[in-house]
Amino acid sequence: MAREGLRIVIGSDHGGYVLKGEIAEYLKGEGCHVIDVGAYTPESSDYPDFARLVSEKILKGEADRGILICGSGVGASVAANKFPGIRAAVCHDTYSARQGVEDDDMNVLCLGARVIGVELAREVTLSFLNAEFKALERYERRLLKIREIEQGWITKD
Ligand code: RB5
Known about the structure:
The protein is α/β, with parallel strands linked by helices. The chain has six helices and five strands; from the N terminus they run βαβαβαβαβαα. The chain has helices spanning 17-29, 47-59, 74-80, 94-104, 118-130, 137-150, and strands at 7-12, 33-36, 65-70, 88-90, 108-112. Helix 2 (47-59) crosses helix 3 (74-80) and helix 4 runs parallel beside helix 5 (118-130). The protein is globular. D-ribose is lined by residues 13, 15, 47, 70-72, 74-75.
């Protein structure tokens, strides 16, 4: 079971459209509040648009975690990570999905619908949603360094 009442925002381009529907239905059955930001049709669409919609929901505090699905998961993760405060990664195994939250405070899971099957995608998603950040000093220190990078800090020559 996923943690009760989690607010999950989910989005995909055409490449992830079918898997998005399957994961959204699964999460509703798990008691999550699911916000589907599209795509709503299988026609060709652009993953940065959905990376933006998912990221903005999280950054506005309207969702707790996000899931982005494209063909490989790569384009969606590249786009989502351009939003300061978003920590997105492609995970196709349960270890990375759990540990990415516990150590790195990952808040967006990216999946590649042309890479992963629906059963494994469900298990990876559950590992992601049930994990919580462990606020150890060394993890916080590393996140602070990421925030510095987001703020444009560059090493002086
Ligand atoms: C779309 O054909 C595909 O390029 C996209 O879904 C994704 O795989 C990009 O990373």
